[in-house]
């Protein structure tokens, strides 16, 4: 497992997390209970912090990073991911804030200052521009993303189910002995 310190700050990882050996997690990164981090994820909490809420999963090849504080932006842009969030393969989440029960489709890009409210489904390959807010309960797709329609019941249910599936999957991986 590659957990590295930056300026003497080490990632804080709950014991129930699964962190794939090939993932790289640096500095001020906090992973709450049952978080899973899949192969080749890079999470760099150096010039600001990253927080990942309980039961969220960050899938293969995703990049997580942040923006430093400055005079014009005294908080900078940390990266905050809520609970039960599924981040698909090869996404780029940079300095944005995600609520709870969200699916970020594979290959999506979410930029600084964007806010994704609870219970949102973002289609694969979408781009969420800086400072945009995605409203709770909707499907968004496209580059730049547009609100397409309210979520179907099955999609809302899937948001939580996906997190449950990934907690089960990471528990299986934790039992593997190489
Ligand atoms: C957006 C999504 C939820 C499908 O929504 P849907 O309403 O069922 O969409 P449909 O398949 O009926 O397609 C409707 C239209 O949207 C288009 N479309 C579908 N997904 C799209 C996407 N991600 N981006 C842009 N357009 C998309 C379709 O081509 C279709 O266009 P058309 O009407 O011109 O033919 C799905 O395609 C998607 O992106 N899922 C994300 C899956 C994922 O990444 N999971 C994480 C990995 S575990």
Which percent bin holds the helix content? 10-25%
As residue ranges, the low-confidence spans are none
Mean pLDDT: 97
> Which structural class fits the helix and strand makeup?
mainly beta
SSE ordering:
EEEEEEEEEEEEEEEEEEEEH
Discrete helix count: 1
What is the correct CATH architecture? 3 Solenoid
List the ions, cofactors and other small molecules found in this model: coenzyme A
The CATH H-level homologous superfamily: Hexapeptide repeat proteins
Query: What is the CATH third-level topology name?
Result: UDP N-Acetylglucosamine Acyltransferase, domain 1
Q: Can you summarize the main beta sheet?
A: 12 strands, parallel
Quickly count the domains: 1
Strand content: 35-45%
CATH class: Mainly Beta
Give the N-terminus to C-terminus distance in angstroms.
Answer: 13 Å
């Amino acid at each position: 497992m590659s957990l590295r310190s930056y300026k003497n700050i080490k990632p804080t990882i709950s014991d129930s997390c699964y962190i794939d050996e090939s993932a790289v997690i640096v500095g001020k990164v906090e992973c709450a209970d049952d978080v899973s981090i899949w192969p080749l994820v890079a999470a760099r909490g150096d010039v600001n912090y990253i927080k990942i809420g309980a039961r969220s999963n960050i899938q293969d090849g995703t990049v997580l990073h942040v923006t430093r504080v400055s005079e014009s932006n005294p908080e900078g842009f940390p990266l905050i991911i809520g609970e039960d969030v599924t981040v698909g393969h090869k996404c780029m989440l940079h300095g944005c804030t995600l609520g709870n029960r969200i699916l970020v489709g594979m290959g999506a890009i979410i930029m600084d200052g964007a806010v994704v409210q609870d219970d949102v489904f973002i289609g694969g390959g979408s781009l969420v521009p800086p400072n945009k807010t995605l409203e709770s309960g909707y499907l968004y797709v496209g580059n730049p993303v547009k609100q397409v329609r309210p979520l179907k019941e099955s999609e809302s249910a899937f948001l939580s189910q996906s997190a449950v599936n990934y907690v089960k999957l990471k528990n299986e991986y934790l039992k593997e002995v190489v």
